[in-house]
Amino acid sequence: MYNQYQGNYNQPPQQQWGQQPPASYGGPGGPGGYGYNNGAPPPPQNNYGAPPLQNGYAPQGGYGAPPQQQQPYGGHSPQPPYGAPPQQSYGAPPQQSYGAPSPQPPYGAPPPNQSYGAPPPGPPQQYGAQGGYDAPPPQAAPGQGPRFFGIPIPAPPPAVPVNNLPGYNAQFDAERIRKATKGFGTDERTIIDTLSPLDPFQMDVLSRTYEQTVGRPLKKTLEKELSGWLEYTLVLLSLGPLGGDLHLLHRACAGMGTHEDLLNELLLGRTNEEIFHLKEGYRRVYGKDLVAVVRGELSMKTERMFNMALSGQRDEAPFVNQQQVQQDVETLYRAGPGKMGTDEIGVCGILLSRSDAHLQAIAQAFPQRHRVALSQMVQNEFSGHMRDGLYYIAKGAEGDGQGVVRDAEMLYAAMAGMGTKDERMIYRIVRSHWNRPRFNAIKNQYQALYGKSLKRAVEGETTGKYEKALVSIIEQN
Prior knowledge:
48% of the residues lie in helices and 1% in strands.
Protein backbone atom coordinates (compact mmCIF):
# COMPACT_ATOMS: atom_id res chain seq x y z
CA MET A 1 0.00 0.00 0.00
CA TYR A 2 2.90 2.33 0.63
CA ASN A 3 4.84 1.77 -2.57
CA GLN A 4 3.38 4.79 -4.34
CA TYR A 5 5.24 7.08 -1.98
CA GLN A 6 8.90 6.39 -2.65
CA GLY A 7 11.28 9.20 -3.27
CA ASN A 8 13.46 11.96 -1.97
CA TYR A 9 11.79 14.50 0.18
CA ASN A 10 14.22 17.33 0.72
CA GLN A 11 11.79 20.19 1.08
CA PRO A 12 11.64 22.96 3.69
CA PRO A 13 9.93 22.37 7.05
CA GLN A 14 7.17 24.40 8.66
CA GLN A 15 5.80 23.90 12.16
CA GLN A 16 5.66 25.29 15.77
CA TRP A 17 5.13 23.94 19.28
CA GLY A 18 1.97 23.68 21.46
CA GLN A 19 0.53 22.02 24.62
CA GLN A 20 -1.58 19.59 26.82
CA PRO A 21 -0.50 17.26 29.62
CA PRO A 22 0.78 13.82 28.65
CA ALA A 23 -0.76 10.67 30.03
CA SER A 24 1.69 8.64 32.06
CA TYR A 25 3.20 5.54 30.50
CA GLY A 26 1.24 3.36 32.83
CA GLY A 27 -1.85 5.53 32.78
CA PRO A 28 -4.99 5.10 30.75
CA GLY A 29 -4.84 5.68 27.04
CA GLY A 30 -8.06 7.62 27.15
CA PRO A 31 -11.58 6.65 26.21
CA GLY A 32 -12.70 6.07 22.70
CA GLY A 33 -11.15 4.35 19.74
CA TYR A 34 -10.31 5.00 16.17
CA GLY A 35 -13.46 6.69 15.01
CA TYR A 36 -14.06 7.58 11.42
CA ASN A 37 -15.88 10.85 11.07
CA ASN A 38 -17.80 13.02 8.71
CA GLY A 39 -14.93 14.97 7.21
CA ALA A 40 -15.39 18.25 9.10
CA PRO A 41 -14.74 19.24 12.69
CA PRO A 42 -16.13 18.46 15.12
CA PRO A 43 -16.95 14.95 13.85
CA PRO A 44 -19.09 12.48 15.80
CA GLN A 45 -17.38 9.98 18.05
CA ASN A 46 -17.39 7.01 15.75
CA ASN A 47 -14.89 4.78 17.43
CA TYR A 48 -12.68 2.71 15.18
CA GLY A 49 -11.85 -0.68 16.55
CA ALA A 50 -14.86 -1.36 18.76
CA PRO A 51 -17.86 -3.58 18.82
CA PRO A 52 -21.22 -2.18 18.03
CA LEU A 53 -20.87 1.52 17.16
CA GLN A 54 -22.36 2.20 13.75
CA ASN A 55 -20.01 4.37 11.75
CA GLY A 56 -16.66 3.64 13.19
CA TYR A 57 -14.67 1.82 15.73
CA ALA A 58 -14.78 1.54 19.49
CA PRO A 59 -12.20 1.59 22.30
CA GLN A 60 -9.88 -1.31 22.92
CA GLY A 61 -8.96 -1.57 26.58
CA GLY A 62 -5.53 -1.87 28.06
CA TYR A 63 -3.77 0.84 26.10
CA GLY A 64 -2.60 2.53 29.26
CA ALA A 65 -0.45 -0.41 30.38
CA PRO A 66 3.29 -0.18 29.71
CA PRO A 67 4.33 -1.98 26.52
CA GLN A 68 6.33 -5.17 26.64
CA GLN A 69 10.09 -5.07 26.30
CA GLN A 70 11.94 -6.47 23.32
CA GLN A 71 15.49 -6.97 22.28
CA PRO A 72 16.85 -4.19 20.11
CA TYR A 73 16.63 -4.70 16.44
CA GLY A 74 20.01 -4.94 14.84
CA GLY A 75 22.24 -6.56 12.26
CA HIS A 76 21.93 -5.06 8.80
CA SER A 77 23.59 -4.97 5.45
CA PRO A 78 25.67 -2.18 3.92
CA GLN A 79 23.83 0.65 2.25
CA PRO A 80 25.09 3.64 0.24
CA PRO A 81 25.34 7.12 1.80
CA TYR A 82 22.81 9.78 2.55
CA GLY A 83 22.71 13.50 2.47
CA ALA A 84 21.30 15.76 5.12
CA PRO A 85 18.18 14.84 7.13
CA PRO A 86 15.16 15.10 4.86
CA GLN A 87 12.35 17.58 5.38
CA GLN A 88 9.09 18.42 3.68
CA SER A 89 6.31 20.91 3.65
CA TYR A 90 2.70 20.33 2.96
CA GLY A 91 -0.30 21.93 1.40
CA ALA A 92 -4.00 21.11 1.47
CA PRO A 93 -5.90 18.52 -0.54
CA PRO A 94 -9.64 18.72 -1.17
CA GLN A 95 -12.38 18.08 1.38
CA GLN A 96 -13.76 14.57 1.64
CA SER A 97 -16.95 13.30 3.19
CA TYR A 98 -17.19 10.02 5.05
CA GLY A 99 -19.54 7.27 3.97
CA ALA A 100 -18.73 7.45 0.28
CA PRO A 101 -15.54 6.72 -1.64
CA SER A 102 -13.03 9.44 -0.92
CA PRO A 103 -11.88 11.71 -3.74
CA GLN A 104 -8.23 11.44 -4.56
CA PRO A 105 -6.36 14.33 -2.92
CA PRO A 106 -3.67 16.15 -4.83
CA TYR A 107 -0.37 15.33 -3.20
CA GLY A 108 1.53 18.21 -4.77
CA ALA A 109 4.32 17.32 -7.11
CA PRO A 110 4.54 13.61 -7.91
CA PRO A 111 7.13 11.84 -5.78
CA PRO A 112 10.55 11.59 -7.41
CA ASN A 113 11.74 8.29 -8.80
CA GLN A 114 14.74 8.20 -6.48
CA SER A 115 14.05 5.84 -3.57
CA TYR A 116 14.11 7.06 0.03
CA GLY A 117 17.22 5.77 1.70
CA ALA A 118 20.50 4.56 0.38
CA PRO A 119 19.75 1.83 -2.18
CA PRO A 120 19.55 2.95 -5.81
CA PRO A 121 16.18 3.24 -7.53
CA GLY A 122 14.53 0.20 -9.00
CA PRO A 123 11.14 -1.50 -9.33
CA PRO A 124 9.31 -2.30 -6.10
CA GLN A 125 10.35 -5.61 -4.64
CA GLN A 126 7.63 -8.22 -4.79
CA TYR A 127 7.47 -11.57 -3.09
CA GLY A 128 5.30 -14.48 -3.84
CA ALA A 129 4.10 -17.13 -1.40
CA GLN A 130 6.42 -17.72 1.49
CA GLY A 131 7.16 -21.31 2.26
CA GLY A 132 7.59 -20.84 6.00
CA TYR A 133 10.40 -19.84 8.30
CA ASP A 134 12.87 -22.29 6.76
CA ALA A 135 12.29 -20.98 3.26
CA PRO A 136 15.07 -18.81 1.79
CA PRO A 137 14.43 -15.08 1.99
CA PRO A 138 12.78 -13.46 -1.02
CA GLN A 139 15.13 -12.24 -3.69
CA ALA A 140 15.32 -8.51 -4.25
CA ALA A 141 15.63 -6.93 -7.67
CA PRO A 142 19.22 -6.17 -8.71
CA GLY A 143 20.51 -3.23 -6.69
CA GLN A 144 17.39 -3.24 -4.52
CA GLY A 145 17.37 -3.98 -0.80
CA PRO A 146 14.44 -4.95 1.40
CA ARG A 147 11.49 -2.58 1.62
CA PHE A 148 9.08 -1.74 4.42
CA PHE A 149 6.38 0.95 4.42
CA GLY A 150 7.27 1.40 0.75
CA ILE A 151 10.83 2.54 1.50
CA PRO A 152 14.21 0.78 1.62
CA ILE A 153 15.30 -0.40 5.06
CA PRO A 154 18.51 -1.96 6.39
CA ALA A 155 18.67 -5.67 5.62
CA PRO A 156 17.85 -7.68 8.76
CA PRO A 157 20.03 -10.57 10.03
CA PRO A 158 21.70 -12.70 8.88
CA ALA A 159 22.89 -9.90 6.58
CA VAL A 160 26.20 -8.33 7.61
CA PRO A 161 25.49 -4.98 9.30
CA VAL A 162 26.95 -1.72 8.02
CA ASN A 163 29.00 0.21 10.58
CA ASN A 164 29.48 3.52 8.79
CA LEU A 165 27.41 5.71 6.50
CA PRO A 166 29.37 8.33 4.57
CA GLY A 167 27.77 11.68 5.34
CA TYR A 168 26.50 10.61 8.75
CA ASN A 169 28.60 10.68 11.95
CA ALA A 170 27.00 8.02 14.16
CA GLN A 171 29.84 8.30 16.70
CA PHE A 172 29.03 11.99 17.24
CA ASP A 173 25.33 11.27 17.82
CA ALA A 174 26.13 8.34 20.12
CA GLU A 175 28.34 10.64 22.19
CA ARG A 176 25.60 13.30 22.31
CA ILE A 177 23.16 10.78 23.77
CA ARG A 178 25.76 9.45 26.22
CA LYS A 179 26.41 12.96 27.53
CA ALA A 180 22.68 13.76 27.65
CA THR A 181 22.07 10.75 29.90
CA LYS A 182 25.24 10.98 32.03
CA GLY A 183 25.07 11.89 35.72
CA PHE A 184 22.07 13.38 37.46
CA GLY A 185 19.19 14.42 35.26
CA THR A 186 18.60 13.80 31.58
CA ASP A 187 18.79 16.28 28.70
CA GLU A 188 15.63 15.09 26.94
CA ARG A 189 15.74 17.85 24.33
CA THR A 190 19.16 16.73 23.08
CA ILE A 191 17.90 13.16 22.71
CA ILE A 192 14.85 14.42 20.78
CA ASP A 193 17.00 16.58 18.49
CA THR A 194 19.38 13.67 17.87
CA LEU A 195 16.83 10.96 17.07
CA SER A 196 13.97 12.75 15.28
CA PRO A 197 15.80 13.64 12.01
CA LEU A 198 17.21 10.15 11.38
CA ASP A 199 16.08 7.86 8.59
CA PRO A 200 16.02 4.04 8.98
CA PHE A 201 19.63 3.46 7.95
CA GLN A 202 21.01 6.23 10.16
CA MET A 203 18.93 5.03 13.12
CA ASP A 204 20.22 1.50 12.66
CA VAL A 205 23.87 2.56 12.54
CA LEU A 206 23.41 4.86 15.54
CA SER A 207 21.80 2.09 17.61
CA ARG A 208 24.68 -0.29 17.02
CA THR A 209 27.34 2.41 17.37
CA TYR A 210 25.84 3.46 20.70
CA GLU A 211 25.82 -0.10 22.03
CA GLN A 212 29.42 -0.61 20.94
CA THR A 213 30.49 2.69 22.53
CA VAL A 214 28.49 2.59 25.78
CA GLY A 215 28.08 -1.16 26.28
CA ARG A 216 24.31 -0.99 26.61
CA PRO A 217 21.55 -1.02 23.97
CA LEU A 218 20.12 2.40 23.10
CA LYS A 219 16.63 1.09 23.87
CA LYS A 220 17.66 0.17 27.43
CA THR A 221 19.18 3.61 27.98
CA LEU A 222 16.02 5.36 26.81
CA GLU A 223 13.86 3.17 29.05
CA LYS A 224 16.09 3.91 32.02
CA GLU A 225 16.43 7.67 31.50
CA LEU A 226 12.95 8.60 30.26
CA SER A 227 9.40 7.98 31.38
CA GLY A 228 5.78 8.30 30.33
CA TRP A 229 4.73 8.91 26.76
CA LEU A 230 8.06 10.58 25.96
CA GLU A 231 9.75 7.26 26.69
CA TYR A 232 7.19 5.39 24.60
CA THR A 233 7.69 7.78 21.65
CA LEU A 234 11.48 7.73 21.59
CA VAL A 235 11.81 4.00 22.23
CA LEU A 236 9.48 3.24 19.31
CA LEU A 237 11.35 5.75 17.13
CA SER A 238 14.75 4.28 18.02
CA LEU A 239 13.73 0.80 16.84
CA GLY A 240 13.25 1.85 13.22
CA PRO A 241 10.42 0.77 10.89
CA LEU A 242 10.69 -3.02 11.12
CA GLY A 243 11.92 -3.15 14.72
CA GLY A 244 9.12 -0.78 15.74
CA ASP A 245 6.43 -2.95 14.15
CA LEU A 246 7.84 -6.06 15.82
CA HIS A 247 7.77 -4.22 19.15
CA LEU A 248 4.12 -3.25 18.57
CA LEU A 249 3.15 -6.76 17.49
CA HIS A 250 4.52 -8.11 20.74
CA ARG A 251 2.65 -5.37 22.57
CA ALA A 252 -0.62 -6.22 20.79
CA CYS A 253 -0.46 -9.88 21.79
CA ALA A 254 1.14 -9.68 25.25
CA GLY A 255 -0.67 -9.76 28.56
CA MET A 256 -4.38 -9.98 29.19
CA GLY A 257 -6.52 -9.28 26.15
CA THR A 258 -5.56 -8.50 22.58
CA HIS A 259 -5.21 -5.04 21.07
CA GLU A 260 -7.25 -5.99 18.03
CA ASP A 261 -7.22 -2.54 16.46
CA LEU A 262 -3.42 -2.50 16.60
CA LEU A 263 -3.29 -5.91 14.91
CA ASN A 264 -5.43 -4.49 12.10
CA GLU A 265 -2.95 -1.71 11.41
CA LEU A 266 0.09 -3.95 11.70
CA LEU A 267 -1.04 -6.93 9.60
CA LEU A 268 -3.83 -5.97 7.21
CA GLY A 269 -3.10 -4.49 3.80
CA ARG A 270 0.62 -5.28 4.04
CA THR A 271 2.74 -6.38 1.11
CA ASN A 272 3.97 -9.95 0.85
CA GLU A 273 7.47 -8.69 1.56
CA GLU A 274 6.38 -6.92 4.73
CA ILE A 275 4.59 -10.02 5.99
CA PHE A 276 7.73 -12.06 5.32
CA HIS A 277 9.92 -9.66 7.32
CA LEU A 278 7.40 -9.51 10.17
CA LYS A 279 7.23 -13.30 10.48
CA GLU A 280 10.98 -13.77 10.20
CA GLY A 281 11.70 -10.87 12.54
CA TYR A 282 9.23 -12.03 15.19
CA ARG A 283 10.83 -15.45 15.29
CA ARG A 284 14.31 -13.89 15.46
CA VAL A 285 13.51 -11.38 18.24
CA TYR A 286 10.96 -13.30 20.32
CA GLY A 287 11.65 -16.92 19.37
CA LYS A 288 8.00 -17.51 18.46
CA ASP A 289 5.95 -18.25 15.36
CA LEU A 290 3.94 -15.09 14.64
CA VAL A 291 1.18 -17.09 12.92
CA ALA A 292 0.76 -19.27 15.99
CA VAL A 293 0.85 -16.27 18.34
CA VAL A 294 -1.85 -14.41 16.41
CA ARG A 295 -3.92 -17.57 16.10
CA GLY A 296 -3.82 -17.91 19.88
CA GLU A 297 -5.22 -14.38 20.26
CA LEU A 298 -8.19 -14.78 17.91
CA SER A 299 -10.94 -17.26 17.22
CA MET A 300 -13.24 -18.64 14.56
CA LYS A 301 -13.62 -16.65 11.33
CA THR A 302 -11.53 -13.70 12.53
CA GLU A 303 -8.65 -16.12 13.05
CA ARG A 304 -9.12 -17.36 9.49
CA MET A 305 -9.09 -13.78 8.21
CA PHE A 306 -5.71 -13.11 9.83
CA ASN A 307 -4.36 -16.44 8.61
CA MET A 308 -5.14 -15.18 5.10
CA ALA A 309 -3.27 -11.94 5.82
CA LEU A 310 -0.25 -13.78 7.27
CA SER A 311 0.01 -16.19 4.35
CA GLY A 312 1.90 -13.50 2.41
CA GLN A 313 0.31 -14.51 -0.89
CA ARG A 314 -1.50 -11.37 -2.03
CA ASP A 315 -1.70 -10.65 -5.72
CA GLU A 316 0.73 -7.79 -6.38
CA ALA A 317 0.35 -7.43 -10.14
CA PRO A 318 0.46 -3.76 -11.15
CA PHE A 319 -2.26 -4.08 -13.80
CA VAL A 320 -5.99 -4.36 -13.18
CA ASN A 321 -8.26 -6.87 -14.91
CA GLN A 322 -11.53 -4.94 -15.22
CA GLN A 323 -13.51 -8.10 -15.95
CA GLN A 324 -12.26 -9.61 -12.71
CA VAL A 325 -13.11 -6.37 -10.91
CA GLN A 326 -16.75 -6.61 -12.08
CA GLN A 327 -16.91 -10.27 -11.07
CA ASP A 328 -15.54 -9.40 -7.60
CA VAL A 329 -18.06 -6.57 -7.20
CA GLU A 330 -20.92 -8.99 -7.86
CA THR A 331 -19.40 -11.67 -5.64
CA LEU A 332 -19.08 -9.19 -2.79
CA TYR A 333 -22.67 -8.08 -3.25
CA ARG A 334 -23.99 -11.64 -3.33
CA ALA A 335 -21.91 -12.50 -0.25
CA GLY A 336 -23.32 -9.54 1.67
CA PRO A 337 -26.39 -7.45 0.85
CA GLY A 338 -27.56 -9.83 -1.88
CA LYS A 339 -28.23 -12.83 0.38
CA MET A 340 -29.74 -13.79 3.69
CA GLY A 341 -26.85 -13.80 6.12
CA THR A 342 -23.29 -12.92 5.14
CA ASP A 343 -20.61 -15.07 3.57
CA GLU A 344 -17.79 -13.65 5.70
CA ILE A 345 -15.03 -15.86 4.31
CA GLY A 346 -16.07 -15.09 0.73
CA VAL A 347 -15.68 -11.36 1.39
CA CYS A 348 -12.39 -11.90 3.24
CA GLY A 349 -11.06 -13.98 0.36
CA ILE A 350 -11.41 -11.02 -1.99
CA LEU A 351 -10.42 -8.13 0.27
CA LEU A 352 -7.33 -9.86 1.66
CA SER A 353 -5.96 -11.40 -1.54
CA ARG A 354 -6.38 -8.70 -4.22
CA SER A 355 -3.75 -6.09 -5.05
CA ASP A 356 -4.06 -2.48 -3.92
CA ALA A 357 -4.83 -1.34 -7.47
CA HIS A 358 -7.49 -4.01 -7.85
CA LEU A 359 -9.10 -3.12 -4.50
CA GLN A 360 -9.17 0.53 -5.49
CA ALA A 361 -10.97 -0.40 -8.71
CA ILE A 362 -13.49 -2.47 -6.69
CA ALA A 363 -14.04 0.46 -4.31
CA GLN A 364 -14.79 2.72 -7.27
CA ALA A 365 -17.06 0.25 -9.06
CA PHE A 366 -19.06 -1.02 -6.09
CA PRO A 367 -21.07 2.17 -5.35
CA GLN A 368 -21.64 2.75 -9.06
CA ARG A 369 -23.24 -0.67 -9.31
CA HIS A 370 -24.97 -0.98 -5.93
CA ARG A 371 -25.32 2.62 -4.63
CA VAL A 372 -23.46 2.05 -1.41
CA ALA A 373 -19.78 2.54 -0.62
CA LEU A 374 -17.71 -0.59 -0.11
CA SER A 375 -16.78 0.52 3.43
CA GLN A 376 -20.44 1.18 4.26
CA MET A 377 -21.40 -2.27 3.00
CA VAL A 378 -18.83 -3.75 5.38
CA GLN A 379 -20.28 -1.69 8.24
CA ASN A 380 -23.79 -2.89 7.43
CA GLU A 381 -23.00 -6.58 7.03
CA PHE A 382 -20.33 -7.33 9.65
CA SER A 383 -19.75 -6.84 13.35
CA GLY A 384 -16.97 -6.99 15.91
CA HIS A 385 -13.30 -7.38 15.08
CA MET A 386 -13.92 -8.78 11.60
CA ARG A 387 -15.95 -5.70 10.73
CA ASP A 388 -13.19 -3.43 11.98
CA GLY A 389 -10.50 -5.26 10.01
CA LEU A 390 -12.44 -5.35 6.74
CA TYR A 391 -13.48 -1.73 7.22
CA TYR A 392 -9.81 -0.78 7.61
CA ILE A 393 -9.04 -2.45 4.26
CA ALA A 394 -12.10 -0.99 2.50
CA LYS A 395 -11.41 2.58 3.68
CA GLY A 396 -7.83 2.23 2.51
CA ALA A 397 -9.00 1.20 -0.95
CA GLU A 398 -11.37 4.13 -1.34
CA GLY A 399 -10.21 7.49 -2.66
CA ASP A 400 -6.49 7.48 -3.39
CA GLY A 401 -6.28 3.69 -2.92
CA GLN A 402 -3.23 4.12 -0.68
CA GLY A 403 -5.00 4.68 2.65
CA VAL A 404 -4.00 8.34 2.96
CA VAL A 405 -7.52 9.61 3.72
CA ARG A 406 -8.12 6.73 6.12
CA ASP A 407 -4.88 7.37 7.98
CA ALA A 408 -5.61 11.10 8.33
CA GLU A 409 -9.02 10.25 9.79
CA MET A 410 -7.48 7.75 12.21
CA LEU A 411 -4.99 10.35 13.44
CA TYR A 412 -7.90 12.68 14.08
CA ALA A 413 -9.79 9.91 15.89
CA ALA A 414 -6.85 9.39 18.27
CA MET A 415 -7.23 13.02 19.41
CA ALA A 416 -11.00 13.51 19.16
CA GLY A 417 -13.43 13.57 22.05
CA MET A 418 -12.78 13.46 25.77
CA GLY A 419 -9.17 12.55 26.42
CA THR A 420 -6.37 11.78 24.01
CA LYS A 421 -5.69 8.21 22.92
CA ASP A 422 -1.96 8.85 23.39
CA GLU A 423 -0.60 5.46 22.39
CA ARG A 424 -2.58 5.40 19.17
CA MET A 425 -1.58 8.95 18.32
CA ILE A 426 2.10 8.15 18.94
CA TYR A 427 2.41 4.94 16.96
CA ARG A 428 0.37 6.34 14.06
CA ILE A 429 2.66 9.35 13.79
CA VAL A 430 5.91 7.41 14.26
CA ARG A 431 4.96 4.61 11.86
CA SER A 432 3.70 7.02 9.20
CA HIS A 433 6.71 9.34 9.33
CA TRP A 434 9.19 6.74 7.99
CA ASN A 435 7.73 7.08 4.49
CA ARG A 436 8.10 10.83 4.39
CA PRO A 437 6.44 11.62 1.06
CA ARG A 438 3.41 9.59 2.11
CA PHE A 439 3.37 11.23 5.55
CA ASN A 440 3.41 14.58 3.80
CA ALA A 441 0.29 13.51 1.87
CA ILE A 442 -1.40 12.45 5.13
CA LYS A 443 -0.66 15.86 6.63
CA ASN A 444 -2.08 17.53 3.53
CA GLN A 445 -5.25 15.51 3.89
CA TYR A 446 -5.51 16.26 7.61
CA GLN A 447 -5.29 19.98 6.91
CA ALA A 448 -8.02 19.72 4.27
CA LEU A 449 -10.40 17.64 6.38
CA TYR A 450 -10.11 19.45 9.70
CA GLY A 451 -9.01 22.98 8.86
CA LYS A 452 -5.77 22.89 10.85
CA SER A 453 -2.40 21.23 10.55
CA LEU A 454 -1.52 17.96 12.21
CA LYS A 455 1.20 19.80 14.12
CA ARG A 456 -1.30 22.25 15.61
CA ALA A 457 -3.62 19.38 16.54
CA VAL A 458 -0.79 17.56 18.35
CA GLU A 459 0.23 20.77 20.13
CA GLY A 460 -3.28 21.03 21.49
CA GLU A 461 -3.20 17.49 22.89
CA THR A 462 0.28 17.29 24.40
CA THR A 463 2.69 19.33 26.50
CA GLY A 464 6.33 19.58 27.54
CA LYS A 465 9.04 17.34 26.08
CA TYR A 466 6.43 14.80 24.96
CA GLU A 467 4.92 17.50 22.75
CA LYS A 468 8.32 18.56 21.47
CA ALA A 469 9.19 14.98 20.50
CA LEU A 470 6.05 14.46 18.41
CA VAL A 471 6.21 17.90 16.81
CA SER A 472 9.90 17.40 15.97
CA ILE A 473 9.03 14.13 14.22
CA ILE A 474 6.24 15.85 12.27
CA GLU A 475 8.56 18.75 11.32
CA GLN A 476 11.07 16.47 9.61
CA ASN A 477 8.69 16.14 6.67
